[in-house]
Amino acid sequence: MKSVYSPRHHGQSGQYELVSGAIVPAFEKPERAEFIRARLAEVALGPVLPPETHSLDIARKVHDAAYLSFLETAYDQWLARGNTGPALPFIWPRPGLRSDVPPADIEGLLGHYSFDGGAPFVAGTWDAVKSSHDVALTGAALLARDRAAFALCRPPGHHAGRAFAGGYCFINNAAVAAQALRDAGHARVAVLDVDYHHGNGTQEIFYDQRDVLVVNIHADPRHEFPYFLGHADERGAGDGVGANLNLPLPLGTEWPAWHAALDSACTAVADFGPTALVISLGTDTFIGDPISQFRLTSAHFPQIGARIAALGLPTLFVMEGGYAVAEIGVNAVGVLEGFDAAI
Ligand code: OKP
Ligand code: ZN
Fold it and tell me: Residue limits of the Histone deacetylase domain (predicted)?
């Protein structure tokens, strides 16, 4: 299959993060995308194309326009206030405080438009975020002719909601791609998120819609980030009741239980009757992942691809998480190889 990649992802770099009270080097780093790109070449999966530049028209259907403007201008506002270094939120409007009056100052705005302190802005952030969005849309367009495509997105997107960043995510690339497929004439689109973490942003964006099914296989949020969404009783709202499925699994989950959940997820996708499928592809389910606690091995990832291929749908893979950098190429491209071998 073809892949889409942009070197502009490097703009999101050079950060630290706060883990359990300690400042540590960022797990979401440029090497991640470079190891995947190297593995694509190593196994000669197919052509690696640059993205076409897209407008934000489709992104505005899944994100608030004011939020997108905030993303584009946040770092300049941070500098204009006399700050240096990464822009990070440190105050949030939790229930009991006012969230209906957007602050005019960037420190307040960062909290207004985020749910955690894990999506830092540096000088190149917007350019990288925009390029990741363009990679997703270029990948979605390939499905007009190709059975499948791989959007090597970085930064990832599945934690980003209609009007919030968080969990390394800014624009929800998978949601933008799903919306593009809807606009291209697919009446029903499914998003299947196999990242270790629940894709709370994708769920929130489509929660009251019946035209986009969102299915998540992830670590139980009672024990894992993002903690405040992703439970099994979240089935959608309004028109979207029944079009959201969460399959939370215990920490320590191994392949047999994970694969059984994938089978349930694929049955739900098939029952929904979509004509296109978006996979939020995280490989942080890997046993060696430094921030995650499932136990899949590299041999399992091609089997994920094969099971997804059996759905027989036009399929866009959108890269999300995976922090075992040395193995991320083998694992992510392994899914794609398993898909290709099964069609
Ligand atoms: C992004 B993606 C660990 C802190 C967790 C956020 C994880 C974001 C994961 N103690 N930090 O879904 O892979
Ligand atoms: Zn993840």
Answer: 28-332
